[in-house]
């Protein structure tokens, strides 16, 4: 413990929190069904330097109520770590508020720096517990999948289990699992879409329960496809999952247009990721997404490629 704190006093420290994509199971995971998620190559880097008190340098680009929310979230995490003497700053290249886990990336990055500054090893369990404090400030009652996927830094199978905590299992793919992430439409507040779905579930529990059950079964099938290296089957599962998300009124014309565009460009499967709604992130599973990323970028579409799992082929 002492050596970690001594190192910080001399050189400072840093911590990275990757963004995330939910490959299968968003929304249903909130209701106790399974989901599959993994980290992006892009994320948030937190840097800590010794200071007389614990504080966060709020990003100048962050405007409005978000500044206060971030400050409160950081204060909760700092308190959980004993408020070590460190000044934390943030930088990153992850699109925010589009369903790619930007708040979870911030939470994980800050947790790593705060733990190191307090002289504790930033193990997965510790990072996840501290990051959860920030996520609760951001989202109230988060499912836990976002910050867990970011903290794990690898592809995972995830299912909430009430008071018993979550079941988290790493997934290994024998083949490279590459995604293209494209942004479509205008994203509205997540809470509006989550709240509207919650109301429909309340009014018609049996109908929406059946849909949630099927999404959970798709996550199970998708996990099996990943571990067996059957990317064609995984792509089909993604397509069916998109159909169910649309049935739950979580998609929109801009999202559907992007889904169809990616499929027409060779995606084995494509779907929204995250909250959905009027717009947000759409993911496509490709064997080689680089050419498609370049083509979409030339058309002015914000997009990126990322490998979620499997061997890295140079």
Strand and helix order: HEEEHEHHHEEEHHHHEEHE
Please estimate the helix content.
40-55%
Could you name the CATH topology of the largest domain? Ribosomal Protein S5, domain 2
Structural class: alpha+beta
Mean pLDDT: 93
Low-confidence stretches: none
CATH architecture verdict of the largest domain: 2-Layer Sandwich
Shape: globular
Euclidean distance between termini CA atoms: 39 Å
Total discrete domains: 2
How many beta strands in the DSSP annotation?
A: 10
The CATH class name of the largest domain reads Alpha Beta
Radius of gyration from CA coordinates = 19 Å
Number of helices: 10
Biggest beta sheet summary? 6 strands, mixed
Strand content: 15-25%
Question: What is this structure, in a nutshell?
Answer:
This protein is 45% helix and 24% strand. It has 314 residues and is α+β, with helices and mostly antiparallel strands.
List the helices and strands and how they pair.
Blueprint lengths: L1 H10 L1 E12 L10 E16 L4 E2 L8 H16 L5 E7 L9 H16 L6 H16 L5 H8 L3 E5 L5 E5 L6 E9 L4 H14 L1 H24 L2 H17 L5 H12 L4 E5 L5 E8 L3 H9 L4 E7 L5
Parallel strand pairs: 3-4
Antiparallel strand pairs: 1-2, 2-4, 2-5, 5-6, 7-9, 7-10, 8-9
Helix pairs in contact: 2-3, 2-4, 3-4, 3-5, 4-5, 6-7, 7-8
């Amino acid at each position: 413990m002492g050596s970690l704190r001594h190192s910080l006093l001399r050189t400072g420290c840093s911590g990275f929190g990757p963004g995330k994509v939910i490959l299968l199971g968003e929304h249903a995971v909130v209701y106790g069904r399974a989901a599959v998620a993994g980290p992006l190559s892009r994320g948030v880097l937190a840097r800590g330097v010794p200071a007389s008190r614990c504080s966060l340098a709020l990003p100048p680009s962050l405007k409005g109520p978000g500044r206060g929310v971030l400050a409160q979230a950081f204060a909760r995490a700092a308190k959980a770590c004993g408020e070590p003497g460190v000044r934390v700053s943030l930088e990153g290249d992850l699109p925010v508020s589009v369903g790619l886990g930007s708040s979870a990336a911030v939470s994980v990055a800050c947790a790593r720096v705060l733990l190191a500054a307090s002289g504790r090893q930033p193990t997965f369990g510790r990072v996840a517990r501290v990051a959860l404090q920030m996520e609760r400030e951001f989202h109230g009652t988060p499912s836990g999948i976002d910050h867990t996927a970011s903290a794990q830094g690898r592809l995972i199978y995830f299912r909430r289990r009430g008071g018993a905590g979550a079941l988290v299992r790493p997934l290994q793919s024998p083949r490279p699992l590459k995604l293209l992430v494209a942004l479509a439409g205008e994203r509205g507040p997540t809470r509006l879409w989550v709240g509207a779905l919650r109301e429909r579930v309340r009014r018609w529990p049996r109908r929406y329960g059946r849909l949630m059950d099927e999404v959970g079964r798709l996550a199970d099938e998708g996990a099996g496809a990943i571990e067996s290296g059957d990317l064609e089957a995984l792509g089909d599962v993604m397509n069916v999952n998109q159909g169910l998300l649309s049935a739950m009124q979580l998609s929109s014309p801009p999202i559907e247009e992007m889904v169809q565009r990616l499929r027409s460009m060779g995606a084995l499967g494509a779907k929204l990721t995250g909250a959905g709604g009027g717009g947000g992130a759409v993911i496509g599973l490709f064997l080689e997404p680089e050419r498609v990323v370049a083509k979409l970028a030339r058309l002015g579409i914000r997009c990126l490629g990322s490998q979620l799992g499997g061997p890295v082929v140079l």
